[in-house]
Write a structure and sequence with these properties.
heterodimer; A: alpha/beta; Rossmann fold; seven-stranded mixed sheet; 12 strands; 40% helix; globular; disordered N terminus; B: 288 residues; alpha/beta; five-stranded parallel sheet
Chain lengths: 324, 288
C-alpha cells in the first residue's frame, strides 16, 4: 500500500490530550473519592501518566521497577486483600510480559484488578516495533472474563476509567501516546459494552475503536460529500462487544467496515465479524495491520503507510458497497 | 480423625501429637492421590510439616470464620503440592474429610491445582510456577496500607525458584521492607525431570535470598522443633526484612520407595503401592 495512491481526507478534527493523559487525570479523581485505589507502574509512570496519581497519593503508589510479571502478581494480591489496584505500563510490556501472571492470578480466579496499557498500536511512532503493541486486543480478549477497552478520546478515556473502577472483575484498557482528536464533551456518558453511534447513515457502517474513530469520522464526512451515507460506531468496548448495535448496523446498512490500530488477527474486526455472523450476516471489510510489524517513523507517517488513515477507510467502504 | 477448631493465637497440640498427625496426613495423601489416579506425591509428602507448623501452631486463623479480614494468609505457590494442603485444611476444620476422596474428580472443590473458585478458603489460585511470592507481596502491601497486622506466608518449591519472577519479587519485598511476608522454600532438591543439581541448581539458596536483602534461616523441614520456632520468629519483628525459611526436606518423605526418587514427582501410586506405602506409614506410627 502506497500513501501516494490515496488522497488526504479534508475533514479535520481538533486535537485534545492523549488518552493516556486522561487516564492519569481520571486516576487522580478516583484516588480522591476512593481510598482503596492503589496504583502500580513498571518504570513508565511518567509516560503512562500514572505519575499524576503518584504525585498526589505517594503512599498508594508503587513502582515495581522494570518487572511486569511481578507487578501483575502484586496487583492480584492487592485485589485479593480488598484493594482496587490499577497497574499500568506500555501495552506491549504489560500484556506480553505479564500475560501468564494476568491469566493465572487475575483472569482465572476472576480477581478485581485493572490493567492499563499505554502507547498502544503503531502510533507510538519512532520507537519502533519493539514498543508497538499490535496484539493486545487479541491477547486480552483471549482471557476469559476480561473486559477490554480502547477509548477514542480524552473524554471517553476519562469516563471509562471510572467505569473500570465500578465494574467488579478484571478489565484491560489500551491508551494511546499521541494527542487524540476531540470527539466528545465532558457531559457525554459511556457505559462498558455500549457503542457510541455517530450519525444514522444506512449505506454502510464503520465500526472503529481508539484513534481509528477519528479517522472513521473523517471518512464518514468524505463519503457524505460523495453521496454515501455511513454511520460510525465507536466500539470503545472490544469485549464484551455490543452485539445489538452491530446487529442493528448490519440490518440497517447491509455492509460493515471495521477499523483498528491492531493486527487483523484476533482484534476488533474478528470480534465484530463473529457478532455479524451470529446475528445478521452481511459483507465486511477489515481495516487494520496486515500480518506485519511496522517500523520507526512519525505516527502520521506510520498510520498512512500501514493503511489506517481515513482514505483507507473510505476505500474499504467503497469496496464493501460493491459486495452488497 | 478429629477435627480441630483453631481459634486465634491458640497453641493446641504438642509436638508429639503433631508428629502423629503428620504421619496420618501422609497416609491420607497417599490414599487421595491413589484414588485420584494422578497427582504429585513426592512434593506433597515433603511439605507436610511445613503445612502443619503454620496451620496448627503459627497462623492466626479461624476455621469458623475463613474470610476473617485480619487472618494470616497462606499461599501454596507450588500448587501441585495441594493434596497435602487439602488434607491439612481438612484436619484444621475447613473441609469435610469425606471430600478428600473426591480429589481431581469432576465438580470437586479439590481441583488438581488450588482453585479458589471451587474452594474459597484458598488464598490464591496457583499452578503456574513462580508467581506466589508476587501475590503474597500484594497481600503484605495491602496489610500495611490497611494498617492491619496479619502476616502472609508463601510456600514455594525449590524447582520453581528457577523462574525469574521470584527474583523480581525478592528485590521488591526487601526494598519495601515487607517484614510481614515470609517465604518457606520446600527444599527437597528435586524437580520433575530429576535432581536440581542436574538441571539448574539454585544453590546456595539462603545466600541468594540474603543477598537480595532477606533475613534467612535454614532448618530441617521435617523437624517441627525447628519448623515452628522458625515460623514464629518470622512472624515477629525482623528489623524490616522479609524472611525466607529454607527448609531442607526429603521428597516422598515417609514412603521408602518414593524417598529421593524423582520418578515420584508426578506419578500416582498403583493400588499395591498404595497398600505398601500405608503399611509402612502405619508401622512407623507405632514408633511415634
Amino acid at each position: 500500500m502506497s500513501s501516494t495512491t490515496v488522497p488526504k481526507a479534508k475533514f479535520e478534527l481538533k486535537m485534545g490530550v492523549a488518552t493516556r493523559e486522561a487516564y492519569g487525570q481520571a486516576l487522580v479523581e478516583l484516588g480522591r473519592s476512593n481510598p482503596n485505589i492503589v496504583v502500580l507502574d513498571a518504570d513508565l509512570a511518567k509516560s503512562t501518566f500514572s505519575a499524576k496519581f503518584q504525585k498526589e497519593f505517594p503512599d498508594r503508589f508503587f513502582t515495581c521497577g522494570i518487572a511486569e510479571a511481578n507487578m501483575a502478581g502484586i496487583a492480584s494480591g492487592l485485589a485479593l486483600a480488598g484493594k482496587l489496584p490499577f497497574a499500568s505500563s506500555f501495552a506491549v510490556f504489560l500484556c506480553d510480559k505479564g500475560y501468564d501472571q494476568i491469566r493465572m492470578c487475575v483472569a482465572y480466579p476472576g480477581v478485581n484488578a485493572k490493567f492499563v496499557g499505554s502507547h498502544g498500536g503503531i502510533s507510538i511512532g519512532e520507537d519502533g516495533p519493539s514498543q508497538q503493541s499490535v496484539e493486545d486486543y487479541a491477547l486480552m480478549c483471549a482471557l476469559a472474563g476480561f473486559v477490554v477497552l480502547n477509548p477514542s478520546d480524552e473524554f471517553c478515556a476519562r469516563a471509562l476509567v471510572h467505569r473500570m473502577a465500578e465494574h467488579v472483575g478484571p478489565v484491560y484498557m489500551r491508551t494511546g501516546r499521541p494527542k487524540a482528536p476531540i470527539i466528545y464533551g465532558p457531559d457525554d456518558k459511556f457505559e462498558i459494552g455500549k457503542a457510541k453511534q455517530h450519525g444514522d447513515g444506512r449505506d454502510a457502517a464503520i465500526i472503529a475503536c481508539g484513534l481509528e474513530v477519528g479517522y472513521a469520522l473523517q471518512a464518514q464526512a468524505q463519503l457524505a460529500d460523495e453521496g454515501i451515507q455511513a454511520r460510525v460506531l465507536d466500539m470503545h468496548t472490544i469485549k464484551p462487544i455490543d452485539e445489538s448495535a452491530i446487529a442493528q448496523a448490519a440490518q440497517d446498512c447491509g455492509a460493515i467496515v471495521t477499523a483498528e490500530e491492531h493486527l487483523l488477527d484476533g482484534g476488533l474486526g474478528s470480534q465484530v465479524a463473529r457478532a455479524v455472523a451470529r446475528t445478521h450476516p452481511v459483507p465486511m471489510e477489515l481495516v487494520g495491520i496486515q500480518n506485519t510489524y511496522a517500523e520507526s517513523a512519525s505516527p502520521d507517517q506510520l498510520m498512512e503507510k500501514y493503511g489506517l488513515t481515513a482514505p483507507y477507510i473510505v476505500k474499504a467502504v467503497k469496496a464493501v458497497l460493491k459486495r452488497k | 480423625m478429629s477435627t480441630l477448631a483453631v481459634t486465634p493465637g491458640q497453641k493446641t497440640e504438642s509436638i508429639a501429637e503433631l508428629k502423629r498427625r503428620a504421619n496420618r496426613l501422609r497416609i491420607e495423601i497417599i490414599k487421595m492421590i491413589g484414588a485420584a489416579g494422578s497427582g504429585h506425591p513426592g512434593g506433597s509428602l515433603s511439605e507436610v510439616e511445613l503445612l502443619l507448623g503454620p496451620y496448627f501452631r503459627v497462623l492466626r486463623h479461624n476455621p469458623k470464620d475463613p474470610q476473617w479480614a485480619n487472618r494470616d494468609r497462606f499461599i501454596l505457590s507450588k500448587g501441585h503440592g495441594c493434596p497435602a494442603l487439602y488434607a491439612v485444611l481438612a484436619d484444621a476444620g475447613y473441609i469435610d474429610h469425606a471430600v478428600l476422596a473426591t480429589l481431581r474428580k469432576l465438580g470437586s472443590p479439590l481441583q488438581g491445582h488450588p482453585d479458589k473458585r471451587f474452594l474459597p478458603v484458598l488464598e490464591a489460585n496457583t499452578g503456574s510456577l513462580g508467581q506466589g511470592i508476587s501475590v503474597g507481596i500484594g497481600m503484605a502491601l495491602a496489610a500495611r496500607l490497611d494498617k492491619k497486622d496479619y502476616h502472609t506466608f508463601v510456600m514455594v518449591g525449590d524447582g520453581e525458584i528457577q523462574e525469574g519472577q521470584n527474583w523480581e519479587a525478592a528485590m521488591f519485598a526487601s526494598y519495601h521492607k515487607l517484614q510481614n511476608l515470609t517465604v518457606i522454600v520446600d527444599y527437597n532438591h528435586q524437580q520433575l525431570d530429576g535432581f536440581l543439581k542436574d538441571i539448574l541448581d539454585p544453590a546456595p539458596l539462603a545466600e541468594k535470598f540474603e543477598a537480595f536483602g532477606w533475613r534467612t534461616v535454614e532448618i530441617d523441614g521435617h523437624n517441627l522443633d525447628q519448623v515452628i520456632p522458625a515460623l514464629e520468629t518470622a512472624r515477629q519483628e525482623t528489623g524490616g526484612k522479609p524472611t525466607c525459611i529454607v527448609a531442607n526436606t526429603i521428597k516422598g518423605k515417609g514412603v521408602s520407595f518414593m524417598e529421593n526418587n524423582p520418578e515420584w514427582h508426578g506419578v500416582a501410586p498403583k493400588p499395591d503401592q498404595v497398600a505398601a506405602a500405608i503399611a509402612e506409614l502405619e508401622a512407623a506410627a507405632k514408633t511415634l
